[in-house]
Amino acid sequence: DRDENLGYYGELLRRVSGKTDIAVLPETFTTGFYMEVEKLADTMDGPTVPTIKGWAAKYNLAVAGSFIAKEDGKYFNRAFFITPEGDEYYYDKRHLFRMAAEDKHFTAGDKRTVIKYKDWNICLQVCYDLRFPVWSRNVDNEYDLLIYVANWPEPRKKVWKALLPARAIENMAYVCGVNRVGIDGKGFTYRGDSMIFSPKGKKLADAGKREEITRTCTLNKSDLEELRAKFPAWKDADAFSIL
Asked: Which is the catalytic residue, given 53, 102, 127, 176?
């Protein structure tokens, strides 16, 4: 229920107002991860995007997540990052989960999105993108924080837990992975395990399993810059481009 979910997340954001600069919500947070796109999709003029813009302004924080978007007759799993000032950034999920026929119902994106916010460069990606390291490749330290929003099911929890710190280490960046919890309408179970990792792969925050809670974490840009200066492995990355 879109309206109920918007009300629920609006209350969560009210509670963290004044405690964080960025709030990250799960993948397709208004509807859950379903293929009934004709019924569940939202256009860019409402109600999801205007509601998020209202939250960002009212609670003075940037809000990230994804929703099912309809634009020009196509459907996208569209990640968003909306600031208190009303700046809007979007990323359409590149890797569509064929095992759930996402590729049959959605259109894949073909461009990455890197946002500059409060002196941080932030890259947005969605769920299944996590399995494809070339897509998150951090050339010349293009970004400082990599955010994954997800509906990652419990049977594949080991993959989620392994790849998040791997992406942090290989890209020398902070990584934030936010996953849903609960059981969806098709009986799939999601246990959460939302986590934040340092560029060294150290776990900085963990929302735990099967809990509907919020966690806050402070990220240190100076620590990141110091690591990149002292251990500049990024300078030795192979030079290639994605066609």
From this structure: 127
**Domains, the chain, with CATH or none:** 2-232 (3.60.110.10)
186 is catalytic: no
Q: Does the annotation count 27 as an active-site position?
A: yes
Q: What are the tens digits of pLDDT across the range 146-183?
A: 999 999 999 999 999 999 999 999 999 999 999 999 99
Q: Quick one: tokens of 240?
A: 């290639």
pTM over 0.85: yes
At residue 80, the 3 state secondary structure works out as strand
Contacts 24+ apart (CB under 8 A), 136-139: 136/167, 136/171, 137/171, 137/237, 138/170, 138/171, 138/172, 138/173, 138/234, 139/237
pLDDT band at 239 (very low <50, low <70, confident <90, very high): confident
Contact present, 41 and 243 (Cβ < 8 Å): no
Known active-site residue 217: no
